[in-house]
Amino acid sequence: MPLRESEAIVLRSFPLGEADRVVSFLSRTEGRLKGVARGARRTKNQFGSTLEVLSHVRIWFYERETRDLVRISQCELLESFYEAQKDYATSLALGLVSEVVERILPEREASDPVFRLVLLTARAISQKAGLWLPLAYFAVWQVRLAGWLPRMDRCQNCGKEFGAGGAWALMNGELVCSNCRIGGRHIEPGALAAGLRIQSEKLEKLSEAPPPGADLKAILEEMLDIIERETERTLAIRKMMAGQIEI
Question: By the 8 A CB rule, do 8 and 26 touch?
Fold first, then answer.
């Protein structure tokens, strides 16, 4: 079992036995993996703060035959978001990013675009310049990379461009005009405009003149609805965020 080395982002970790931790991490070259960090719960251990949520690390691990979990031998911290997590709202935002990646990305499927997206989002969130923009940016691009993103400029049924009336989100994820809708939830024009800007502008550029918080929150909610529908699982942290992050 050869030792492997990779740049990685820690998604989460949880206790195993009295001294160890199971770590879910996103390897840049190997995809999403889970491994055991021996002795990581001891007061004095070699891992230190490298296993915190969304820590950017260099990781060394062994692939073990007939075992689902790899064995983590060493972690080197490249970038930490530990200080940012002392703020409750920020910690929830970072936790949501972690949970979404775990829900969407299959195990052992490397995705450099997702890796770069997670790191970019974590850095933006940790700057505490507002949480709605980086969260909406992350969600739109994560849904797009997964192949689930509907068109935000015109009706998916008749092809009519969305105007001042906005769009209607149907249960199957399609966005349609008022003439084609049967039920559904209304999406304001501002939210659609925010989604289109996110797809065409870099996060740094968006930060100079961000869309209104209410529009960012609305498009984020729509993306999270899509993620929950496609994965058939509720995002636990989404409920915890309700009312905790101000616009």
Answer: yes
Is the pTM higher than 0.85? The answer reads yes
Inside any domain, residue 222: yes
Residue span of the structural domain in which 7 resides: 3-79
The SS3 call for residue 209 is coil
* Exposure b/e, 202-215, CB count within 10 A at least 16 = b: ebeebbeebbebeb
Q: Do 104 and 42 sit in the same domain of this protein?
A: no
Predicted pLDDT at 35 = 94
* DSSP code at position 163: -
Residues of the chain falling short of pLDDT 50 = 247
Confidence at residue 242, expressed as pLDDT on a 0 to 100 scale: 80
150 and 235 both lie in a single domain:
yes
Residues 6+ apart with CB under 8 A from 106: 31, 32
From 56, 79, 102, the end of a domain falls on 79
